[in-house]
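Action item from last week, closing it out:
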Amino acid sequence: MSILIGDLKIADIGRYINLDRRVDRNKKILDELDSKKITGIKRKSAHTGMHCGRSSIIATTFQLYQEFLKTGKDTMIVLEDDCKFIDRLYIERNKIFTDIYNSSWDLFWLGCHHRRPIRSRGNNCFQVSSPVYCQSYIIKRDLALSFVKDYNDYNECNERDVSILDTSNAGLDELLCLYVNGGKDLVTNALSNGYYKLEQPLDIYKPKFIALCYKEPLSTQYNSRSDTTDTDTNLEDWLLTPYPIETSNI
């Protein structure tokens, strides 16, 4: 079943990640999808019992990619259960997704925060190097396949895969960010390589895959209690602030 916004296809399949005990969030994301007329996205039960919440999300996502690859489909949209789409995503859906699918990418972040300026790639789309606080994205088959192959010896990604990042907002978005830009080696050696001290990683690294975002956020993270950090979040408005853009590359 294709993923639609109204009558417009936006991906082949879709999943949202949700802990069994967070019935409140499950209802919230279903209401959100219904309000934006998004259909076809199914629930993925979140992995539990890992060392920390971040590792559980990574383990869940690894399993999700394995399931995605078995379908033979080319694109999958993935949501956290605290994702909230802006109204413009539905209102301007034809323009937005024409821009997106007329661009070349392996990973498309629909909403996040950028710690480094984003770089124009045309069609109102921009290449990214340092996204965090991501709650929605579209991934293509080749990237998911490479990720699963590189981490298949673990059976599931666990705390070993993010422990090196504990001082740098470790998480699934961080892992994907590093993997896209430099593969497994960069994931392992990001701190020792000085990745986080670079003004613009795109000037130094030739990305293994291409990660893009739209010219402005298409989703945010609604304020709620986070199981990952065991704190109340207040990022909803902040994540909708304009992205920093490299003016020299416009």
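Closing note: The radius of gyration is 17 Å.
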